[in-house]
Design brief:
Nucleoside Triphosphate Pyrophosphohydrolase; alpha+beta; 194 residues; 8 strands; 5 helices; 5-stranded mixed β-sheet; 3-stranded antiparallel β-sheet
């Protein structure tokens, strides 16, 4: 799956306007802009370099917790996210669809700061799995507010578990030996500026 129907110019505009104080993100920003500029098939799984993906840093209304999933294939605690699909016209549509599909949450509010939609960006390697070669995910992350009291209905095909974590727990997970993506620490750090 994946598509070519999403217009890449609005995404390039978002990336060009994105401002961050994290060195790794400055490098990611350059690499993502280069990737999008060079590849019209940026969303297609057939692109052997990688794909643009969309993720959500889902937080509760009090901004004290984040919703994480235990990803079955990667065996890591991660934010919700995934590939762009044919029906998605914007990166926002990708992110909202993924949150609804993977968590069952319905009441979602997009938060953005400094007139920029992007909350975080990351480039990470997806290991080879069967016939799918190792490749990169060029991930754009948005911040979304949700009701932690709403019933969670996880998508069982991809998710082992889904759980609200206090932000200090996420920070502790990122600093421990438990398998968690290190970019979580960066996203928690950014919560101080909300």
């Amino acid at each position: 799956m994946g598509c070519n129907s999403m217009n890449k110019q609005p995404i390039l505009d978002l990336l060009n306007n994105y401002q961050t104080s994290f060195d790794e993100e400055i490098e990611f920003q350059k690499r993502m802009i280069d990737f999008l500029t060079q590849h019209d098939d940026f969303a297609l799984r057939s692109n052997l370099t990688g794909q643009l993906t969309g993720s959500a840093w889902v937080i509760n209304k009090e901004h004290t917790k984040a919703l994480l999933i235990h990803h079955k294939k990667l065996n890591k605690w991660l934010q919700i996210g995934g590939h762009i699909e044919d029906s998605d016209q914007t990166i926002e549509e990708t992110v909202f669809r993924e949150v609804k599909e993977e968590s069952g949450l319905k009441t979602l509010k997009l938060l953005s700061s400094n007139s920029n939609l992007i909350y975080d960006i990351d480039i990470h390697t997806i290991p080879q799995k069967k016939e799918v070669a190792e490749h990169l995910h060029f991930d754009i992350r948005l911040i979304i507010e949700a009701d932690e009291n709403e019933t969670l209905i996880p998508q069982n095909e991809e998710i082992l578990d889904i759980k609200w974590y206090d932000l200090h727990q996420v920070q502790n997970l990122a600093e421990s030996t438990i398998s968690i993506d290190q970019s979580m620490k960066r996203m928690v750090d950014k919560m101080k500026n909300l």
